[in-house]
Amino acid sequence: MPRLPNETEPVTLDTFLRGLWQENPVFVMLLGMCPVLAVTNSAINALAMGLASTFVLVMSNSLVSLMRNFIPKQVRIATYIIIIATFVTMVDYTIQAISLELYNALGAFIQLIVVNCMILGRAEAYASKQPLWPTIINGLGIGAGFTFALLCLGVVREILGAGQLFGIDLFGDSFQPWVVMILPPGGFFVLGAWLLIFAWFRERKQRLSKLQEVTQHGG
Amino acid sequence: MSDTHSSPLPASQATPSGKMLRTLGLVATLSGLLVVLSYRVTLPMIEHNKRMAIEKALYTVVPGAVTRQDFVFDGDSVKAADNTGEGVHIYAGYDDQGRLKGVAMEAAAPGYQDVIRILYGYDPYCQCIRGFEVLKMAETPGIGDKIVKDAAFQANFEALDAQPHPSGSGLANPIVLVKPGQKTQPWQIDAISGATISSRAVARMLNDSSQMMSPIIKNYLSLLERGTRS
Hints:
The structure holds two protein chains of two kinds.
Chain A: H1 13-20, H2 33-38, H3 43-66, H4 76-98, H5 100-106, H6 117-127, H7 132-162, E1 164-165, E2 168-169, H8 184-218
Antiparallel strand pairs in A: 1-2
Chain B: H1 17-61, E1 67-73, E2 78-80, E3 88-94, E4 100-110, E5 115-123, E6 128-136, H2 146-149, H3 151-154, E7 160-161, E8 176-178, E9 188-190, H4 196-219, H5 221-226
Parallel strand pairs in B: 8-9
Antiparallel strand pairs in B: 1-2, 1-3, 3-4, 4-5, 5-6, 6-7
């Protein structure tokens, strides 16, 4: 049964799984396209960006959920942005502390997590209406879906564009890398291919469920 | 007659400004505390990573060096670096006998996508640049990053002439970029075909830095050779 916008959601497995498939932020909602196209030129960059975004999403949405009854409607967006920017700054320092090489590879896209519409969208549409526990589970699901999507792109682009996976050579010297795959156009090609596959899966699922319905009514 | 205009909230329902200010103030304070806390916790690790990156690059661009000492040019003179001093850093590399093998300095210039930062090695005895390592760049993979990967381009820096002008100001011959395959002089750099902007950035930053630092290294060579042992 559909849920009313302000109705509290019970925590189920679906709260988490929705973000992975039905409400996947990249393949279904097409949110956060900027990092999706820009940093997925290698699997490690994709994984790091996915994990960083997940941390910011879960932490900022948790704080928004805890403060949801105290934040006046008129200043809610400003408040969400301050909260998100705080956690992005923490992630920024943490990545610099872990590896400067990774930090340089991700460039300005770490700071740009602040304006990732996936995070602000979740704060406005979910965290500001739900208690802490469902918010954390839902945030983890959406973050996992985002990381999964980035990895889908990063793995394909690194294999085709550099002949490597997580920096490990796969094909030896005989392989001629498709450099275009690690350039921006390659991001669009691979994203297009993944969207096509996801659309095909969705359509197939709908067709099968319709067929099942017709069979049941017919019987 | 129905009123289709949205009426303003009655005074009893409108949020008082004080409450909005209190909320924003509370969130901003919490935010400030978290940012300062994470900065203080990660600062030693970030500083350590930066030192390690420079050290790793130094031993590559100054071949034969096994130890280092840091100096700083503060605009007037060169002196041993301390944590408080601002200025241009000079990293001197010494072999196991304590002999000066060369110095390394940072240089930067805008590349195709962002500023490229390098550490280059300068040999004060041949008065030439011996190589460079990229500390930070965001050049296009497969194109601009050839400044690191292209062997022919790297060959420019086996002994790139950077001798100071006899007058003691600037270089005798400015370091310039020439079209691919047209290098005829030791102070020229062969550009990379298809990556002209990135190779021009390298030439520009090396020229700008050497114009200033090459005469200074010559003047303070005895201090650099002696190190801080005196």
